[in-house]
Amino acid sequence: MTGLLPEVVRDTIGEQSLYSASESFGVVAFVLLVVLLLEQEALRTMRTAPDRARVLSALVVPLLVAVMLTIILRVTKLLP
Protein backbone atom coordinates (compact mmCIF):
# COMPACT_ATOMS: atom_id res chain seq x y z
CA MET A 1 0.00 0.00 0.00
CA THR A 2 2.87 2.42 0.61
CA GLY A 3 3.88 1.99 -3.02
CA LEU A 4 0.87 4.11 -3.93
CA LEU A 5 2.23 7.14 -2.05
CA PRO A 6 4.79 9.31 -3.81
CA GLU A 7 8.19 9.61 -2.17
CA VAL A 8 7.58 13.29 -1.39
CA VAL A 9 4.48 12.46 0.66
CA ARG A 10 6.27 9.70 2.58
CA ASP A 11 9.17 12.05 3.38
CA THR A 12 6.79 14.79 4.50
CA ILE A 13 4.93 12.45 6.83
CA GLY A 14 8.09 10.83 8.21
CA GLU A 15 10.00 14.05 8.93
CA GLN A 16 7.27 15.91 10.82
CA SER A 17 6.05 15.46 14.34
CA LEU A 18 2.49 14.25 14.77
CA TYR A 19 1.35 17.69 15.89
CA SER A 20 2.84 19.56 12.93
CA ALA A 21 1.66 16.91 10.46
CA SER A 22 -1.90 17.17 11.75
CA GLU A 23 -1.70 20.94 11.47
CA SER A 24 -0.56 20.97 7.85
CA PHE A 25 -2.89 18.21 6.71
CA GLY A 26 -5.75 19.85 8.62
CA VAL A 27 -5.19 23.03 6.63
CA VAL A 28 -5.27 21.06 3.38
CA ALA A 29 -8.55 19.40 4.39
CA PHE A 30 -10.02 22.79 5.34
CA VAL A 31 -9.03 24.37 2.01
CA LEU A 32 -10.45 21.38 0.13
CA LEU A 33 -13.69 21.71 2.10
CA VAL A 34 -13.98 25.41 1.23
CA VAL A 35 -13.38 24.73 -2.47
CA LEU A 36 -15.99 21.95 -2.51
CA LEU A 37 -18.52 24.11 -0.68
CA LEU A 38 -17.98 26.95 -3.16
CA GLU A 39 -18.41 24.59 -6.08
CA GLN A 40 -21.55 23.12 -4.53
CA GLU A 41 -22.99 26.60 -4.07
CA ALA A 42 -22.13 27.53 -7.67
CA LEU A 43 -23.90 24.42 -8.94
CA ARG A 44 -26.90 25.19 -6.75
CA THR A 45 -27.25 28.72 -8.09
CA MET A 46 -26.85 27.62 -11.73
CA ARG A 47 -29.50 24.92 -11.20
CA THR A 48 -27.70 22.53 -13.52
CA ALA A 49 -26.29 19.03 -13.11
CA PRO A 50 -28.28 17.78 -10.10
CA ASP A 51 -26.31 14.52 -10.17
CA ARG A 52 -23.04 16.39 -9.72
CA ALA A 53 -24.51 18.36 -6.81
CA ARG A 54 -25.49 15.10 -5.11
CA VAL A 55 -21.97 13.73 -5.56
CA LEU A 56 -20.51 16.90 -4.06
CA SER A 57 -22.92 16.63 -1.13
CA ALA A 58 -21.74 13.07 -0.55
CA LEU A 59 -18.14 14.29 -0.47
CA VAL A 60 -18.71 17.41 1.61
CA VAL A 61 -20.46 15.80 4.58
CA PRO A 62 -17.65 13.39 5.65
CA LEU A 63 -15.01 16.02 4.93
CA LEU A 64 -16.94 18.53 7.04
CA VAL A 65 -17.05 16.05 9.92
CA ALA A 66 -13.30 15.41 9.64
CA VAL A 67 -12.49 19.14 9.58
CA MET A 68 -14.79 19.86 12.53
CA LEU A 69 -13.24 17.05 14.57
CA THR A 70 -9.77 18.35 13.75
CA ILE A 71 -10.72 21.87 14.83
CA ILE A 72 -12.38 20.63 18.03
CA LEU A 73 -9.36 18.51 18.95
CA ARG A 74 -6.97 21.35 18.25
CA VAL A 75 -8.99 23.80 20.34
CA THR A 76 -9.38 21.41 23.28
CA LYS A 77 -5.62 20.87 23.28
CA LEU A 78 -5.17 24.64 23.74
CA LEU A 79 -7.51 24.75 26.74
CA PRO A 80 -5.88 24.42 30.16
Q: TL;DR?
A:
The protein has 80 residues and is mostly helical. The protein contains three helices and no strands.
Characteristic terms for this protein:
mainly alpha; 0% strand
| Low-pLDDT sequence parts | none
**Domain module count:** 1
> What can be said about the biggest beta sheet?
none
Could you report the average pLDDT, rounded to the nearest whole number? 78
Computed over alpha carbons, the radius of gyration is 16 Å
Quaternary structure state of the chains depicted: single chain
Give the total of beta strands.
0
Tell me the overall shape.
flat
List SSEs in N-to-C order: HHH
Residues in β-strands, percent: under 5%
Structural class designation:
mainly alpha
How far apart are the first and last residues' alpha carbons, in Å?
39 Å
The total of helices stands at: 3
Query: Which percent bin holds the helix content?
Result: over 70%
How would you explain this protein's 3D organization?
- With 80 residues, the chain is an all-alpha fold.
- The protein has one domain.
- Helices cover 84% and strands 0% of the residues.
- The protein contains three helices and no strands.
- The chain has helices spanning 7-15, 18-46, 50-78.
- Helix 2 (18-46) packs antiparallel against helix 3 (50-78).
- The longest helix has 29 residues, at 18-46.
- It is flat.
